[in-house]
Amino acid sequence: MKKILSMALAAAMVMSMTVNAAAAEVSTVEAGKLYMATNAAFPPYELVADDGTFEGIDVEIATAIAEKLGLELVVDDMDFTAVVTSVQTGKDDIAMAGLTVTEERKQNIDFSDTYATGIQVIIVTEDSAIATVDDLEGKLIGCQEGTTGYMYCSDDYGEENVVAFPNGANAVQALMTGKVDCVIIDNEPAKAFVAANEGLKILDTTYVVEDYAIGVNKENPELLAAINGVLKEMIEDGSVKAIVDKYINAGTEEETAEETAEETTAEAK
Q1: Whether the Cβ atoms of residue 82 and residue 40 lie closer than 8 Å to each other
Q2: Model-level pTM?
Q3: Residue 27: which region, alpha, beta or left (left: phi > 0; alpha: psi -120 to 50)?
Q4: Is 27 exposed, middle or buried (0-12, 13-18, 19+ CB in 10 A)?
Q5: Alpha helix ranges (H) inside the chain
Q6: Domain check: are 28 and 103 in the same one?
Q7: The CATH number of the domain where 200 resides is what?
Q8: Per-10-residue mean pLDDT, the chain, length 269
């Protein structure tokens, strides 16, 4: 047992030394800081808290990465369409905005290892005749501009049948007022929008599954390597999962616990 513990400790020390060494070599837009380009209208990955600060899965992961690299995170909120360009031109260091890895984006920026999986779903009104993906033909679809959802829908159903909005909230508002027939967006933001707007539902079907990663300027491979080193460490020690669970799975786990408690009480009665 002592030998196993010693080996585990040695491995952790080697990984920590590797991350620290990589951190010492990175260069950023501003010394001592890590600028994150995002669109803070994509809950639970990034959003503006009641006190005006930024929070969410991406923000917490980025904060942890910055700290491990000895840097201070600075969140740069902007339109989603500007996120990739901002990193490509060197205005910001990283792009984290529920950003999907695509071949088109890989031409402009490099991507880190994947840290989360995104699922595109379909939001409709509760009285909608749309029941599956097969019913989308000929319908007017709302999407957030610049997203993979918009790209996929334009390819599948034609640009004339897809309406782009600055953010998901605007797209959902258009659905509520009958300006579009449905909205296609990532599953977690979809849950938040449906919870906040009565009369909407998410179809029990998946439109597409994709990977989220961190975008980095192609001329900064040292930063990319350092980020991947930290990500690997955070994934292996459970830090990433803990952050995701905090925003996504916590409610489900609490509901399951409550249901179990209710069932136990019922059986006791």
Answers
A1: no
A2: 0.78
A3: beta
A4: exposed
A5: 2-25, 57-68, 83-88, 103-106, 148-157, 168-176, 187-196, 221-236, 239-244, 250-268
A6: yes
A7: 3.40.190.10
A8: 51 51 76 97 94 97 98 97 98 97 96 94 97 96 95 96 96 98 96 96 95 97 98 97 87 39 36
